[in-house]
Design brief:
Helix content: 40-55%
Keywords: DNA-binding, Phosphoprotein, Transcription, Transcription regulation
Protein name: Response regulator
CATH topology of the largest domain: Rossmann fold
Structural class: alpha/beta
Pfam families: GerE (PF00196), Response_reg (PF00072)
CATH architecture of the largest domain: 3-Layer(aba) Sandwich
Largest sheet: 6 strands, parallel
Number of strands: 6
Number of domains: 2
Oligomer: single chain
Order of helices and strands: EHEHEHEHEHEHHHHHH
Organism: Flexivirga alba
């Protein structure tokens, strides 16, 4: 079972998401919270696998709550908002969020996103990802790319580039003509060597370091 904490300052919205997710046989909502402070406290109390986090909330917003939760637990955070604004996406990823979706997401897609994030995958809507890297990933200073990526082997660098392009493990395996198991090993090593939490941060780093360019 994947244990969930649902966080939203609107009680009806919070209850709606909880009811949708509780209907899934492999998902269990173990707590709810109405603001960021409550989210941090409830996370300590119920130890969820995934936190479904609203962005705009009173007392403590979802970005700050995400940063606090990521620092103090192993829970992964999936951000949900009605606002399709790039700044929120970038700040959420910087805070350690593993995914970002709009609240108009379909119930089936929401459940899929929760499972993907729980499994360590990235969950960003393609349009959001495109604007994120175009608007907020600054080009590196001269020499910065070699310094940050120098710990990777040539094959690991290839894998990071393909992660940055949004390819799944299966697609990377097909591109490089290796097995999915081999790709999984490479991905694990890339994240470990670069001290990255998940694939979302790997995508951002690939653009920040100049390995990929917007467009």
């Amino acid at each position: 079972m994947i244990r969930l904490l649902v966080v939203d300052d609107q009680a009806l919205v919070r209850r709606g998401f909880a009811m949708i997710l509780d209907q899934e046989p492999d998902l269990e909502v173990v707590g709810e919270a109405g603001n960021g402070h409550e989210a941090v406290e409830r996370c300590r109390a119920v130890d969820p696998d995934v936190v479904l986090m609203d962005v705009r909330m009173p007392e403590m917003n979802g970005i700050d709550a995400t940063a606090a939760i990521v620092r103090s637990s192993s829970a992964r955070v999936l951000m949900l908002t009605t606002f399709d604004l790039d700044a929120y996406v970038y700040d959420a990823i910087r805070a350690g969020a593993s995914g970002f979706l709009l609240k108009d997401v379909r119930p089936d897609d929401l459940a899929h996103a929760v499972r993907a994030v729980a499994a360590g995958e990235t969950m960003l809507a393609p349009a959001i990802t495109r604007r994120l890297v175009e608007e907020f990933c600054a080009r590196p200073a001269p020499g910065r790319a070699d310094e940050r990526l120098g710990v990777l082997s040539a094959r690991e660098l290839e894998v990071l580039e393909l992660i940055g392009k949004g390819l799944s493990n299966a697609e990377i395996a097909s591109t490089l003509f290796v097995s999915p198991t081999t790709v999984k090993t490479h991905v694990t090593r890339v994240l470990s060597k670069l001290d990255l939490r998940d694939r979302v941060q790997a995508v951002v780093l690939a653009y920040e370091c100049g390995l990929l360019r917007p467009g």
